[in-house]
Amino acid sequence: MDSHKQPARDVLELIGNTPLVRLRGPSEATGCTILGKCEFMNPGGSVKDRAAAFIVADAEARGALLPGGTIVEGTAGNTGIGLTVVANARGYKTIIVMPDTQSQEKQQTLRALGAELILVPAAPYSNAAHYVHTSRRIAEETPGAVWANQFDNIANRLAHLRTTAPEIWAQTDGNIDGFTCAVGTGGTLTGTGMGLKEFNPDLVLALTDPEGAALYNWFAHGELRAEGNSVSEGIGQSRITANLEGLSVDTQFRVPDTEALGYVHDLQQHEGLCLGLSSGINVAGAVRLARDMGPGKTIVTILCDSGLRYLSTIYNPAWCAAKGLPAPPWLRDA
């Protein structure tokens, strides 16, 4: 880290420029260098801060978001947190609509940051009561409000095209052979992938999907069809969002929660990295990509957020037992 860097003018300047960390266990297991981009170090605690900053800046530039206005969004939590951090810094209010199935930590964080939090029952996207549709209606009915629309607002993927991809390229000195991550909105995989492909068209871009999502079958077989289920939050998509349009991947993986949790537990216990399940899914995908490509390659993935957002879920032995999932080994007798 550059100790001579000037102080940031505001919290927005702290978004991005997150470091890469070598994941020792996955690297040694594959003979590759597997690097994680530490997006949990953003001020709002997740990769979603990048999209939030670009979405707000875009709304301001278009004149859609005026001083004292309100930002409304439907989110699994992290985008809402990112938007609220950005909104607080810029003088806006936030109304966040979230499924009531998301972690208590995310709900409490949003309230603590000052967002108006509206919880709705989980519902399929085809249902008018889905959290995304609910947020759109609230935005339409609220004077001075804009709908962030993270799934179909391509300012989301532009954030990664303009920041995440060039950061990774610079941090690896261009020595990167593959990139993979999961999809929620599609912004991170599409923007980062397209950006890295601009630097090196031969880079291997891979989708890593949780079970219960439809994109694995879309890219493998041309069919939007989901199989299985996952307790992961913020990832897993059943449709082609605007942020996914034009995306082409070189390969795809589908990772069960049990496999991903193994990496979450190992990285916490042996490398000091406390991560959420989506990060575990990403690391599992990076390991699979490394094994497909062979030793000596450099693979980068996204460490989306901290495990501290999931103390009541994947770090809670009783919750894990109820879901039929393995608890962290050091907590199993707690």
Keywords:
334 residues; alpha/beta; Rossmann fold; 2 domains; six-stranded mixed β-sheet; four-stranded parallel β-sheet; 11 helices; 10 strands; TrpB-like_PALP_sf; TrpB-like_PALP
Give the structure's gist in a few sentences.
With 334 residues, the protein is an alpha/beta fold. It is 39% helix and 15% strand.
Reconstruct the topology from this structure.
Layout: E1 20-22, H1 24-30, E2 33-38, H2 48-61, E3 70-74, H3 78-90, E4 93-99, H4 104-113, E5 116-120, H5 131-141, E6 145-147, H6 155-171, E7 178-181, H7 187-199, E8 204-210, H8 215-221, E9 251-255, H9 257-271, H10 277-293, E10 298-303, H11 317-323
Parallel strand pairs: 2-10, 3-4, 3-6, 4-5, 7-8, 7-10, 8-9
Antiparallel strand pairs: 1-2
Helix pairs in contact: 1-10, 2-3, 2-6, 3-4, 6-7, 9-10
InterPro entries: Cys_Synth/Cystath_Beta-Synth (IPR050214), P-phosphate_BS (IPR001216), TrpB-like_PALP (IPR001926), TrpB-like_PALP_sf (IPR036052)
Domain Tryptophan synthase beta chain-like PALP: 12-305
Protein name: Cysteine synthase A
- End-to-end CA span: 38 Å
Overall 3D form: globular
Low-confidence parts, pLDDT < 50 over ≥5 residues?
Answer: none
Number of helical segments?
Answer: 11
Overall average residue pLDDT: 96
The helix/strand series, from N terminus to C terminus, equals: EHEHEHEHEHEHEHEHEHHEH
How many strands? 10
